[in-house]
Amino acid sequence: MIYCVFIGRFKEKKLQQLAADYHTRLKRLWPVTLRELEEDGKEIARFVQTKKDKAVLVSLDAQGQGMDSASFIRWVTQSPRDIYFFAWGSDGPPVEISRTGMKSLSLSPMTYSHELARVLLMEQLYRSGATLRGHPYPR
């Protein structure tokens, strides 16, 4: 199962609608659960602590490992455990979070707003599901 953990709330309605559209499409292909957490470092740290031994934790980070879409699809589908993608708020991860043990993934070498990064993640997950199902979207 794939989980997208978004820290903070959308402020830009158009981006929120676009992310919701991708999620609606994505649910038809495979289960992806969205979760929003407030920008409370202690709450986020508790959440991470409860998941770290049971799942693969992925921090979206401009300095993280980059991969193309084909590599992303292989990696996501070959994971034997649940995957939690963490899209941090505009200030990045809170100081209470130790990203030790988290995989660090870059969606691009360019910098995007945290809201746009959410949309990019949802699009890549949709692209992955569509590719696996032979859907024409990725062409």
Structure description:
This protein has 139 residues and is an alpha/beta fold. It has a single domain, classed as Alpha/beta knot (3-Layer(aba) Sandwich), CATH 3.40.1280.10. The protein has 4 helices and 5 strands; from the N terminus they run E-H-E-H-E-H-E-E-H. It has a 5-stranded parallel sheet, with helices on both faces. Helix 1 links the parallel strand 1 and strand 2. The radius of gyration is 14 Å and the shape is globular. The chain starts with a strand and ends in a 7-residue tail after the last helix. The relative contact order is 0.24.
What can be said about this structure in brief?
The protein has 139 residues and is an alpha/beta fold. It has helices spanning 13-27, 41-51, 69-78, 114-132; strands spanning 2-7, 32-37, 55-66, 82-87, 103-106.
